[in-house]
Amino acid sequence: MSAPPRVLTIAGSDSGGGAGIQADLKTTLALGAHGMSVVTAVTAQNSRGVQGAWEVPVEAVRAQYRSVVDDIGVQAVKTGMLASPSLVTAVAELLADGAAPVVVDPVSVSKHGDRLLADDALDAVRTRLLPLATVATPNLDEVAELTGVTVTDEPGLRRAAARLLSYGPRWVLVKGGHLPGEAVDLLTDGREEHWLRAPRHDNRHTHGTGCTLASAVAVGLARGLAVPEAVRGAKEYVTAAIAAGFALGSGIGPVDHGWRLRTGV
């Protein structure tokens, strides 16, 4: 039997299982791909927040990457939590030698407001990582940190996208989930614009949304889809996962990565 599409996630571990490496691997499995991982950090994390975070040494990150890529190979890569300038730089150096499409989720703050990216790492993300991105998928908080653009309405999504594209990614998906009204995102490469709209679900259990969306995009790219088709499919998947999000612990629960298993869709 032939192997399914191979997707590599380079991100931090979420001990609560809702975001990070755990969300990435659940998403790739749910969408029929084979997920592999390079762990960049270990967090003590639950439904209430992040109680602690520890970086993995750069040499261990490099070794994990080479171990997977040199033997198994990858058809798409997704990056998530890269806490420090040294980690961002090391990952960028590794990706620069690869040919697989790269989805960059520039994680800086957790769902609970906990800091996951050092302030001095922002410049490395702008200058080293974003130029390698096939698609960058920032939310509005991450947009503000990377560009200084504060988005309060849909025209602001376009201004933010233009600033992000100046850093070199091929496409940017500016996620407008924090805006009022329906959940609207803008995907653009500076020439084409795709406005992706979905109903906003009345469900507070949305932990892992960003990781899940970026991983779903990576699966689409690993299947050979064009960026707009990969993003559109990912948006549909994560919208349903948000609708099915469930309570876990005493805080914010996760989206349901396995919603298709329970609905039969």
UniProtKB/TrEMBL annotation:
Function: Catalyzes the phosphorylation of hydroxymethylpyrimidine phosphate (HMP-P) to HMP-PP, and of HMP to HMP-P.
Keywords in alphabetical order: Kinase, Thiamine biosynthesis, Transferase
GO terms assigned for molecular function: hydroxymethylpyrimidine kinase activity; phosphomethylpyrimidine kinase activity
Record protein name field: Bifunctional hydroxymethylpyrimidine kinase/phosphomethylpyrimidine kinase
Organism: Streptomyces caeni
Enzyme Commission designation: 2.7.1.49, 2.7.4.7
Gene: thiD
Span of domain Pyridoxamine kinase/Phosphomethylpyrimidine kinase: 14-256
Keyword Nucleus: no
InterPro entries tied to this protein: HMP/HMP-P_kinase_dom, PM/HMP-P_kinase-1, Ribokinase-like
Record lineage: Bacteria, Bacillati, Actinomycetota, Actinomycetes, Kitasatosporales
Pathway: Cofactor biosynthesis; thiamine diphosphate biosynthesis; 4-amino-2-methyl-5-diphosphomethylpyrimidine from 5-amino-1-(5-phospho-D-ribosyl)imidazole: step 3/3
Name of the top EC class for this enzyme: transferase
Pfam family, one: Phos_pyr_kin
Catalysed conversion reaction: 4-amino-2-methyl-5-(phosphooxymethyl)pyrimidine + ATP = 4-amino-2-methyl-5-(diphosphooxymethyl)pyrimidine + ADP; 4-amino-5-hydroxymethyl-2-methylpyrimidine + ATP = 4-amino-2-methyl-5-(phosphooxymethyl)pyrimidine + ADP + H(+)
PANTHER family: HYDROXYMETHYLPYRIMIDINE_PHOSPHOMETHYLPYRIMIDINE KINASE THI20-RELATED, PHOSPHOMETHYLPYRIMIDINE KINASE
Ranges in coiled-coil conformation: none
Top-level taxon in the UniProt lineage: Bacteria
